[in-house]
Amino acid sequence: MPQLRFTTLVEAPLTVAFDVARSLGRPWGAPLEELVSLRPVRDVYSVRAGRGWRWLTHSRRFSATGAGTLVDEQVDWATSVPGPLGRLLDLLLRRRVLRAMQAHLDAYAAAAARRALDVVQVVGAALVDGDRVLVARRSGGPYDRCWEFPGGKVEPGEDDLSALVREIGEELGARIAPQAFLGEVVLDGVVAGGAPGTSTLRVWWARVVDGGQLTAHEHAELRWVTADELESLDWIPADRPLLPAVRDLLARL
Ligand SMILES: Nc1nc2c([nH]c(=O)n2[C@H]2C[C@H](O)[C@@H](COP(=O)(O)OP(=O)(O)OP(=O)(O)O)O2)c(=O)[nH]1
């Protein structure tokens, strides 16, 4: 069965990458049927009886990376003509799909990066020391007394890692070295006046580099916990999907 794959790295959080992809539509002239829509990680569309094809499906997977959202797309189709004529038709369709997707993806990546500028992002650190990770308890606001990853909002023009280093300096009085990207979750609450479900929290594994004492300048409490203690804490609910990645990290180190 003919098939083409495409990979695009979009400078936008998962939610923006997904929402912009959907608002732009698909580069096919025929009506689309939505088969799957799992915001913000996956969707699948199909087109029936288009020009020259019997059917065509277009699936996308959106995954978080430290550099933005990776969008993996796959287009599968079947032609209605058998034999050599069918093979020729397939070649023509392949060229058409390639051209349509390339134009679509260039416009898409640019539109998502532009939209990302309007969405305030949150970054957090999973600070590890030995077999423990630092968790911080919020003080005040809608998540009063809930546990979270220390961090905060990325300021306009700032990149994620600079924001992370700055926030941890302000909140804990410590200098950190980010090590690796751990994961991204959708925040269902309002962040900086934005629509609920638009901002995401992106968390990096990090180490404290200056070896000094950590001080809770903005939190009610700081605690170093083991992997086994993680689940039982009263976390901000949106953070929970990140806990398996933190457990894995602690098991690996
Ligand atoms: N830092 C952090 N924020 C989280 C987590 N989970 C979660 O939903 N949030 C939400 C709570 C807030 O709505 C938002 C972060 O805002 P913040 O108040 O910590 O940011 P900030 O330090 O930049 O604060 P400010 O400018 O408002 O003073 O993200 C988490 O694990 N860590």
UniProtKB/TrEMBL annotation:
One of its GO terms (biological process) is DNA repair. Its cofactor is Mg(2+). One of its GO terms (molecular function) is 8-oxo-7,8-dihydroguanosine triphosphate pyrophosphatase activity. It catalyses: 8-oxo-dGTP + H2O = 8-oxo-dGMP + diphosphate + H(+). It comes from the Bacteria. InterPro entries: MutT-like, Nudix_hydrolase, NUDIX_hydrolase-like_dom_sf, NUDIX_hydrolase_CS, NUDIX_hydrolase_dom. Keywords: DNA damage, DNA repair, DNA replication, Hydrolase, Magnesium, Metal-binding, Mutator protein. The keyword DNA damage applies. Belongs to the Nudix hydrolase family. This is 8-oxo-dGTP diphosphatase. Pfam families: NUDIX. The keyword Cell division does not apply. Residues 118-248 form the Nudix hydrolase domain. Its EC number is 3.6.1.55. CDD domains: NUDIX_MutT_NudA_like.
